[in-house]
């Protein structure tokens, strides 16, 4: 409706459809459609057009709408300016403590978008283990924590942030090792590479192995997604990584990634100290995540 009102104002002031279209960088048919939409909405004739004389005449109802349209557009433009000024002058800082999968692969894009909108809010992101994220909150070393599984404690406020799919990863020439990767039975008797104890990826991998009754031949432990990728690339075995981590690697033709059931996706949560009122900057950041596309 706003664009139609702007078009109508231009036509009334310029008194010519073609010139109004040029002024607005629109096609003349688009201008005609905007005017027709307004007439249909208000149920009144707003502009009389003379094809023969190539002139237009604004009706009485048209002039009434023109006056109100100017007021509406002026109010909206003022509101836009006020909001822009408000966001530019919000200052503050946010300390985020996050598990590696969130800190390395997911949060940077949210922080980048947030910083464009709120350039005067400083953000410090620390990469910590699941347990250390909780410690940072208890010690007031962080404003919010981002973890990859739900906390079973009443000491923290927690809410869902985003969900992420997990993927099986294989050496790029996986057919040399496994004839049919789509049959989970063929994943038994293979070398498996797992993250360290306490890792959310380790937890989900073990859940997957138990649920699918997969028995590894040997198990190797690696301390990061990158080291797992390198191990798989070099033929040490197969593993499971987050979808966001796989995005960084699979386009390099070094590993092959395959989706697994949604049952094995994981949910990330934001946590904060209970009974602590969050700073405005923190609330704005969490709202930004909540209102974004939260499925990775």
Concise description?
With 296 residues, the protein is an alpha/beta fold. The protein contains eleven helices and twelve strands. The mean pLDDT is 85.
What does this structure look like?
- This is HTH-type transcriptional regulator CysL.
- One of its GO terms (molecular function) is DNA-binding transcription factor activity.
- Keywords: DNA-binding, Transcription, Transcription regulation.
- It holds the Pfam family HTH_1.
- Belongs to the LysR transcriptional regulatory family.
- The structure is a single chain.
- The chain has 296 residues and is an alpha/beta fold.
- It folds into three domains: 2-86, Arc Repressor Mutant, subunit A, CATH 1.10.10; 92-163 and 267-290, D-Maltodextrin-Binding Protein, domain 2; 166-264, 3-Layer(aba) Sandwich (D-Maltodextrin-Binding Protein, domain 2).
- The protein is built from eleven helices and twelve strands.
- The protein has helices at 2-14, 17-24, 28-42, 60-88, 100-105, 107-117, 130-138, 200-211, 225-233, 243-249, 280-290, and strands at 47-50, 55-58, 92-98, 121-127, 144-147, 156-164, 166-171, 191-195, 218-222, 239-242, 255-259, 266-273.
- It has a five-stranded mixed beta sheet, with helices on both faces.
- Helix 1 packs across helix 2, helix 1 packs across helix 3 and helix 2 crosses helix 3 (28-42).
- The chain is elongated.
